[in-house]
Amino acid sequence: MTAIIVGASSGLGRALAGELAQRGHPLLLIASDARDLQALAADLALRHEVEVATLAMDLAREVDPGARILAALASLPPATALLLPVGLSRRDDAFGLGAGAIGELLAINLHAPLAIVHALLPMLCERHATVVLFGSIAAVRGRGHNVVYASAKRALESAYESLRQAHAPDVLHVQLYRLGFLATNLTWGLRLPLSPAAPATVARRVVARLGKGSFKRYLPRRFALVALLLRALPWFVFRRLRG
């Protein structure tokens, strides 16, 4: 099967590309930087002897990303997995953020994933494919920081539920991972309440479950307990966290 990875050049997306290539899957890698993509594709093709195509695309400005992806798939084996580890966060994402910055965050974290799923859905359903969405622990409850990012990630959870409601399990598998802290450049140097997980570890678990039903889970699993505790806090207590 060909696996489509949106946001493939760094972090979890890069780790997913490596894990899938190691298992022999042809790949379509999508990210904004053409040079990064070409270097990654050449490395994976050489080490794992798999077919790797790339598509450089600025998701914050691309009007119809799905159409470009469909065109890029024409020369590849049938695609049966769409993984969307794409995301953008900003340290100044709080109330008062400018309209342009809000639009960019929503475009990458919500609009692009939804537009891509909508465009590819007929093809994916025809092939009984798996769509993998990636949420965040940041979306468990409202917060004073990462306001737009968390709002977009919570909206993805609604999209996940809608996809499951609209498609029988024998037509489409839909999986949602609520991610905790990952050891990437976004968390480098930050003081975190829990240690971040290695992207390669998370990627192995995601790839191992492709095609194995529809579900939503926390990764790493310990963040399920964190979410449970956060939801259980009375509002007047939770508000004092200001995080």
List the helices and strands and how they pair.
Blueprint: E1 2-6, H1 11-22, E2 27-31, H2 34-48, E3 52-56, H3 65-72, E4 79-84, H4 99-126, E5 130-136, H5 147-166, E6 173-179, H6 199-208, E7 215-219, H7 222-232, H8 235-238
Parallel strand pairs: 1-2, 1-4, 2-3, 4-5, 5-6, 6-7
Helix pairs in contact: 1-2, 1-6, 3-4, 4-5
Total individual domains: 1
**Helix/strand structural class:** alpha/beta
Count of runs of 4 or more consecutive helical residues: 8
What integer value in Å does the Rg equal?
18 Å
Q: Helix proportion of residues, in percent?
A: 40-55%
- Mind telling me which CATH architecture this is? 3-Layer(aba) Sandwich
Order of helices and strands: EHEHEHEHEHEHEHH
Q: What is the CATH topology descriptor?
A: Rossmann fold
| CA(first)-CA(last) distance | 41 Å
Number of strands: 7
The main sheet comes to:
7 strands, parallel
Mean pLDDT over all positions? 91
Can you tell me the CATH class? Alpha Beta
Measured by DSSP, the beta-strand proportion falls in: 15-25%
- Within CATH, the superfamily carries the name NAD(P)-binding Rossmann-like Domain
- Assembly type of the shown chains? single chain
Q: Return residue spans where pLDDT drops below 50 for at least 5 consecutive residues.
A: none
Strand order in the sheet with the most strands: 3-2-1-4-5-6-7
Summarize the structure.
This protein is an alpha/beta fold and 243 residues long.
